[in-house]
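Please decode residue identities from the backbone states below.
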């Protein structure tokens, strides 16, 4: 079997699982709290534990994939994630659920970087725009489908099904991968860098915890302040240590590559704005406008349709001619306009169809950034460095998403999502409008940063038009 298809099929399934899990579990948090007789704030540890575990194991994923083989590591990661999902579904207490979610994070922390490295080693630079178009499918569908599916499962079945739904996809991915994916292994993975793993894992884990808890606990609270400061200090020490290690686990020397450095900066900014908006819109629908979780998910779904259309346009027609720099800048400028429009459309009695149309537009513009970035980011990275490069790229993507949620949550909390009117608490839509405007400002910064840092010449090897099938030109001549 063609390895491009085989690796893509397994990775798309694994990525879909990972992204879907985050969005679908968020819907079930209130129900889980009621079932275990605890507050929703206490149940947040189910989400935080997963994110922290994810952050701890991402730094080691590149070395593990190189040392034990990409196929073996990827399938093991999917298997761990799948088994842990089943364990979450049968948990009998909140403590058990948290432990099983942490195990889930171990698999999730490895599957995305390892799978991405396998893909970039399988697809040559000239075919990576095609690959980027494929990767947008799970990236688009999972965040949009999660709230809809989560609402259906929690309402009609049980919160346990938000975990059981992972099982058929995970089992199918492992079986298919075991049968059809060929092994990939680097000849010289190097020794295990213990200090790199400890410092990077602990630093990212602490920072992810602090950033995730900041909006709810308060940025000045002792646990948040302590973990954020500790995370920053540990990562600073990690940078110092890793620069003097011959074969570091976290290869920061890759940032000397201009295109890879620029892509990582832009991915942090893009994920900050994009994931922040995806977090904010359901809150507006449900808390400010009173929609159910299911109707909120259905009203968010136009974003996925926009992504699928935009991704095809960029990957098939625009990227080979226009190049990543202008496409990424234009996409972020479009996101700026859309999110600014969301601020205007999120009034107390505004027509929700305006916001649904804007969600479609958001989905349409984001592939200009993400498809172009995924095609170009590794253009100048060697095959032997791809595993470590994927680790860095995915760590920054996860961090950007967490910062986006924390940033817009903090804006919402600072202005106040509710206000008192006529002796009653009502939704304070100005808080949501302010948060949307902050997201627009972040996207605008990303557009300017892209123009300043990205160079099309660095990505020239990826700017190749798709070839028509061998018989296409002959059929055209005959028809003429």
């Amino acid at each position: 079997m063609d390895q491009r298809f085989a690796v893509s099929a397994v990775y798309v399934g694994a990525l879909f699982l990972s992204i879907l899990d985050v969005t679908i579990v968020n819907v079930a948090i209130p129900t889980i709290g009621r079932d275990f007789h605890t507050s929703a704030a206490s149940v947040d540890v189910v989400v935080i534990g997963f994110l922290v575990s994810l952050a701890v194991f991402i730094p080691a994923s590149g070395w593990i994939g190189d040392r034990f083989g990409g196929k073996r590591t990827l399938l093991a990661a999917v298997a761990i994630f799948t088994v842990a999902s089943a364990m979450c579904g049968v948990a009998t207490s909140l403590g058990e659920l948290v432990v099983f979610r942490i195990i889930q994070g171990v698999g999730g922390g490895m599957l995305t970087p390892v799978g991405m490295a396998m893909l970039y080693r399988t697809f040559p630079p000239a075919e990576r725009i095609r690959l980027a178009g494929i990767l947008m499918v799970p990236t688009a569908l999972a965040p949009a489908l999660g709230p809809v599916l989560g609402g259906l499962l929690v309402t009609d079945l049980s919160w346990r099904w938000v975990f059981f739904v992972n099982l058929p996809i995970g089992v199918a991915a492992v079986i298919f991968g075991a049968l059809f994916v060929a092994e990939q292994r680097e000849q010289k993975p190097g020794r295990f860098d213990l200090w790199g793993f400890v410092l990077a894992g602990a630093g990212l884990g602490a920072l992810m915890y602090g950033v995730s808890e900041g909006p709810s606990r308060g940025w000045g609270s002792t646990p948040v302040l302590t973990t954020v400061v500790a995370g920053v200090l540990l990562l600073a020490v990690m940078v110092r240590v890793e620069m003097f290690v011959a074969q570091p686990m976290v290869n920061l020397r890759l940032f000397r590559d201009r295109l890879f450095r620029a892509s990582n900066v832009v991915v942090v900014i893009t994920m900050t704005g994009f994931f922040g908006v995806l977090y904010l819109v359901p809150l507006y629908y449900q808390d400010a406008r009173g929609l159910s979780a299911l109707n909120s998910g259905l009203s968010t779904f136009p974003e996925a349709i926009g992504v699928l259309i935009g991704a095809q346009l960029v990957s098939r027609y625009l990227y080979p001619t226009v190049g990543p720099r202008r496409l990424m800048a234009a996409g972020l400028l479009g996101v700026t306009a859309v999110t600014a429009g969301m601020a205007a459309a999120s009034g107390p009695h505004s027509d929700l169809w305006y916001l649904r149309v804007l969600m479609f537009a958001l989905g349409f513009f984001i592939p200009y950034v993400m498809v172009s970035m995924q095609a170009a980011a590794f253009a100048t990275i060697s095959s032997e460095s791809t595993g470590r490069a994927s680790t860095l790229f995915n760590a920054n993507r996860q961090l950007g998403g967490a910062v986006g949620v924390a940033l817009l949550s903090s804006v919402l909390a600072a202005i106040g999502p509710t206000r008192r009117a006529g002796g009653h608490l009502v939704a304070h839509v100005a808080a949501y409008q302010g948060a949307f405007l902050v997201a627009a400002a972040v996207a605008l910064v990303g557009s300017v940063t892209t123009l300043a840092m990205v160079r099309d010449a660095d990505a020239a090897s990826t700017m190749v038009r798709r070839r028509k099938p061998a018989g296409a030109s002959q059929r055209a001549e005959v028809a003429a």
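Observation: The chain has three domains: 1-192, 194-248, 254-480.
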